[in-house]
Amino acid sequence: KMSLSAKDKATVKAFWAKISSSGEAIGADALSRMLVVYPQTKTYFSHWKDMSPGSAPVKKHGATVMGGVAEAVAKIDDLTSGLLSLSELHAFTLRVDPANFKILSHNILVVLAIMFPTDFTPEVHVAMDKFLAAVARALSEKYR
Amino acid sequence: MVKWSDFERAAIQDIFSKIDYDVVGRAAFSRCLIVYPWTQRYFGSFGNLYNAAAITSNPKVAAHGKVIMAGLEKALTNMDDIKTTYKDLSVLHSEKLQVDPDNFNLLGDCLTIVVAGQMGAAFTPEVQGAFQKFLAVVVASLRKQYY
């Protein structure tokens, strides 16, 4: 298990402080990219009228997802218990195949590279990649 | 044979015409070594890879970034038969270098992120899709001769 060091947590919190006001935009763009570049992920959203980049459902859901990421940053010292109810939601109600967490994480990183080219240094990149992987693990806790 | 739409061909050619090969090669390869440190296993002769600063300033890392981009250039100029173009490269990676092919995807992800940073808003979801398809074909071709 690759856990977050004190340095990783500090890096994530500092970077998040810089970017959190753009949370909704990050979420919308990441989700848009996921749906376009990995069309199999559209299967989870067949109830939406419009899955195109920048559409209302995509924007709204992007904000929801980044709200979850914000919660994870706040609970970074204990993601497993902190994200318990979100894990139950994903495991029992949404039943999202956990492989998709990695896909969405990648697209979040792509958006961060585009929106924050100077701040998204290699050091921030590795800390965020580890953090998103830890969030994915916490979300997968209740699956089986 | 891989089918490329006009949009995909144009998008991929456009990316490569706009990016600085030296910058992108070095940045992507550095990030791979930093974000996925186990990939350093193949580069024991590269000297100091101790931390991110050492990696990003390492001249052998920069030089190898150029080698990687030259390889991608081959695929770019032979988009309709990357599989055949890469036959010897695939044998090289499998038999001589003995690289675990899962690592190709890790480098690919770093390339996508670095190119995204370089291109900014021009790297739209559709352009990203085209670029990632190109990388997927490159990776599949590199894997082809493994046995």
Overall description:
- The complex is a heterodimer of chains A (144) and B (147).
- Chain A has 144 residues and is an all-alpha fold.
- Chain A has helices spanning 6-19, 23-37, 56-74, 79-82, 84-94, 99-115, 122-140.
- Chain A has one domain: Globin-like.
- In chain A, helix 6 runs antiparallel to helix 7 (122-140).
- The model of chain A has no long low-confidence stretch (mean pLDDT 96).
- Chain B is mainly alpha-helical and 147 residues long.
- Chain B contains eight helices and no strands.
Characteristics of this structure?
heterodimer, A: 144 residues, mainly alpha, Globin-like, 7 helices, B: 147 residues, 8 helices, metal ion binding (chain A), oxygen binding (chain A), Globin domain-containing protein (chain A), Globin-like_sf (chain A)
Largest sheet of chain A: none
CATH fold field value of chain B: Globin-like
* CA-CA gap between termini of chain B: 21 Å
> Mean pLDDT score of chain B, rounded?
97
Under the CATH scheme, which class of chain B? Mainly Alpha
- Tell me how many strands of chain A there are: 0
Number of helices of chain A: 7
**Span from first to last CA of chain A?**
18 Å
Helix/strand order of chain B:
HHHHHHHH
Q: How many alpha or pi helices of chain B?
A: 8
Number of domains of chain B: 1
- The backbone outline of chain A, from C-alpha atoms, is globular
